[in-house]
Amino acid sequence: MKLLTTRVAPEWVDYNGHMNDAEYARVFSLAVDTLMERIGLDAEGRERQAYTLFTLETHLCYRREAHQGQALAVEVRLLDRDAKRLHVFFTMSDEAGETLATSEQMLMGIDTGSHRPAPFPSGVFEAIDALPQAEPDAWPTAAGRRIGIPR
């Protein structure tokens, strides 16, 4: 499911002439915001339900450089979920469909009144069901990776 389209802003380009590593994280963060809107947690939904999502963990993999003005598209796939967590996989691509970066994330549902983890509200839970889901044996190859030096 395509969530977000944008372009590499001039201020995102670093001294190496391509998008700075932190800006990839910014784009994936914007994709999380868009995901929240899609599942009923836009500003009004967050206020009405006293509920939001926090990012618990992110694993970002850089594949190709992105340059000023370049078009970016971010898609999401649900890897897993329980009553209050989402395990999602984002893919950032260019106009030709080449993967520029991926971001695997664990998101936690939070009751904003108590600032504690809480189950997804019913409408949100149903909206999550509508997200494209990867079968456990068909996860993207970059999902579930760990960082380490191969020996």
UniProtKB/TrEMBL annotation:
It comes from the Bacteria. CDD domains: 4HBT. SUPFAM superfamilies: Thioesterase/thiol ester dehydrase-isomerase. InterPro entries: 4-hydroxybenzoyl-CoA_TE, HotDog_dom_sf. Signal peptide: none annotated. PANTHER family: 4-HYDROXYBENZOYL-COA THIOESTERASE FAMILY MEMBER, BLR1345 PROTEIN. This is Acyl-CoA thioester hydrolase. It comes from Billgrantia ethanolica. The lineage of its organism: Bacteria, Pseudomonadati, Pseudomonadota, Gammaproteobacteria, Oceanospirillales.
